[in-house]
Amino acid sequence: MNHSSQQSLDSSLETSENRAVPKLRKVLLATGIGHFVEWFDFGLYGTLAAIIGLQFFQAGEPSVALLSSFAVFGAGFIMRPLGGLYFGSLGDRIGRKKVLATVIMLTSGATFLMGLLPTYSQVGITATVLLVLTRLVQGFAAGGESSGATTFLAEYAPTERRGYFTCWIDNFGFMAFVAGSGLVFLLTASLGEAAMTDWGWRIPFLIAGPLGWVGLYLRTHLEDSPEFLEMAKSGKTASSPLRMALTTAWSALFFCVGFVVIKAVGHWTLQTFMPSYLSTELHYSKLDSYAITTIGLFAIAVMVPFMGYLSDKFGRKPLMLAGCAGFILFTWPAMMLMARGDMLSAVMAMLLLGAFIAAFDGACTAAMAELFPTRIRYGGISIAYNVAVAFFGGITPWFSAYLMTATGNPFSPAWYVMGAALITFITVLRAKETAGQPLQR
User: Fold this and answer.
1) Least confident stretch, 5-9, 119-123, 156-160
2) What's the pTM value of the predicted model, to 2 decimals?
3) Assigned CATH for 19-430
4) 3-state secondary structure of 61
5) d(CA 313, CA 433)
6) CA quadruple 404, 409, 411, 414: dihedral positive or negative?
7) Could you give the CA distance from residue 332 to residue 424 in angstroms, rounded to a whole number?
8) How far apart are CA 333 and CA 437, in angstroms?
C-alpha cells in the first residue's frame, strides 16, 4: 500500500460514524489477503491454460488443446451459481466469517491437488476427468468468495468511504492475478519453456497449499461484521434468505446481474484469454505474453483504489458508465494495436483496456452491496454475481477462441467484449445512484 493510500486509510479510520471503524484496517487486510489467496488459486488455471491443454488432453493441434483447456475452465464456472446459492444462503444465516473461511479451504485444497495430478500421457482420459473434478470443486467454492468478501467489507466500511474501502477487494484480486502471472513469467524465464511445459507448471499450483493456510488463519481470527452481529442479536436473520431474495428483490438481482456482465467478461478477457491469445494467435513468445499480461494487471491493481475514491466523490454511475463506454469504443482498436507485434504496443493496449475495467471495478463493488438489505445481502449478491459470471465470464476464453476459429478474424473477440459492455451500460443508465447512502437494513 503506498504512502498516500495509507494516509487516506488512516484518516478514514478516525471517522466516528461506524463503531467498527477502529478495526477496519485489520478487517481490510485480512479480507483482502484472503481474497488474494482465493484468486491466486483460481486464476492460475487461466494463466497456464495453454500448457494445461497440452498436458491433460490428447496430443494434436495446439489450438484444439487450447479450446479443450478453456472448455474445462468454463466448467468451473458452471459450478459457481450452485456454490453461490449454497454459500450465499449459509452466509446470511450463520455469518460471513465462517463461510469465507470454508471457501478458502476448499479452493486451496483443490488447487494444490491440481499440481499433483497425472497427465494424459501417463494415465490417459483419467487425467482429464480428474482435472475436471478439481476444477468443479474450485468453481463451487469460488461461488461464495467475491460476494462474501464484498458483503463483509461493505458492512464494516463507513458510508462516505464505502467505494474506496470495498474496491480494495478488486485491488487484491488483481494483485493475485499479477502474482500468478508474474510467478509463471519468472518460472518460464528461469526454467525455460521446455521445462516449464514438462514439469514447472506444477509449482504454482503446489504453492496454493501453504497460501491457503495463511488465508484461513487470517479469516478465522476476525469478528463477523457489525451489521450481521446486530441482526443476529436481534433475531432478525432470515430463515430462508435465498427464497426471500428470489421473491422480494427481483429488481436488485436484475441490476446486479447487469452490472457484473462487463465485469466478468473484462476480467477474464484480460487475465485468462490474453496470455494465450498473445502467444497462440499473435505469436508473441510465452515469456513476452506473460510479461505483457503481468504489467497490465499490475496497472489495473494500482488504478482501482483511485477509482474507488472517485466513486465516493462523484458517484458510482459516472465511473461505471465511463468504463463501459471505453470498452465499447476502444476494444477493437486496442486489439489492432496488440497485433502490431511489438511489446510496447501490446503493453499500451493492455493499459488502455485496464483503465476501463479499473474505472468500472472502482465503483461496482460498492454499488452491488448497496442494492441489497443486510438479511439477504450475501445471498443476493451471490445469486446475481455468479449467474452473470458463469453465463458471461466463464465462456469468455472459449467463446473468444471460437470466434477467431469460426470467422478467421483475430480481432473478433472484441465483438463479445463490446456487446457485454453495451448490456452493462444500459443497465447502469437505468439504475439509481447509491453512493453516500447508508446500507439497507
Assistant:
1) 5-9
2) 0.83
3) 1.20.1250.20
4) coil
5) 12
6) negative
7) 18
8) 38
3-state DSSP helix/strand/coil % of the chain, to nearest 5: 85, 0, 15
Cα–Cα distance between 284 and 274 in angstroms, integer?
Answer: 11
Supply 271's cell numbers: 487475465
Q: Are 15 and 158 in contact (CB under 8 A)?
A: yes
pLDDT at residue 317 in the model: 97
The number of C-alpha atoms within 13 Å of 249 and in the hemisphere containing its C-beta is: 29
Per the CB < 8 A criterion, the answer to whether 93 and 246 are in contact is no
In angstroms, rounded to a whole number, what is the distance separating the alpha carbons of residues 40 and 174? 9
**Could you give the residue ranges of the DSSP H alpha helices within 95-201?**
96-114, 120-123, 125-142, 145-154, 162-166, 168-191, 193-195
C-alpha–C-alpha distance, residues 211 and 234, integer Å: 37
> 162 near 401, Cβ under 8 Å?
no
Question: 112-126 pLDDT, tens per residue?
Answer: 999 999 998 899 889
Quickly state the pLDDT bin for 266 (edges 50, 70, 90).
Answer: very high
Residue 22 is predicted with a pLDDT of 53
| Alpha-carbon distances of 178 from 108, 121, 172, 184, 346, rounded to whole Å | 18, 31, 10, 10, 17
Cα maximum dimension of the chain: 63
Grid look-up 496488440 returns 338
Name the residue among 124, 123, 137 with its Cα closest to residue 72.
Answer: 137
Q: How far apart are CA 159 and CA 437, in angstroms?
A: 6
pLDDT tens-digit map of 393-440:
878 878 888 899 899 999 999 999 999 999 999 999 999 999 999 898
Give the mean pLDDT of 206-218.
Answer: 87
Grid coordinates belonging to 184: 509463471
Residue with cell 427464497: 243
Integer Cα distance of 403 and 427 in angstroms: 26
Q: Per-residue pLDDT tens for 296-322?
A: 989 999 999 999 999 999 999 999 999
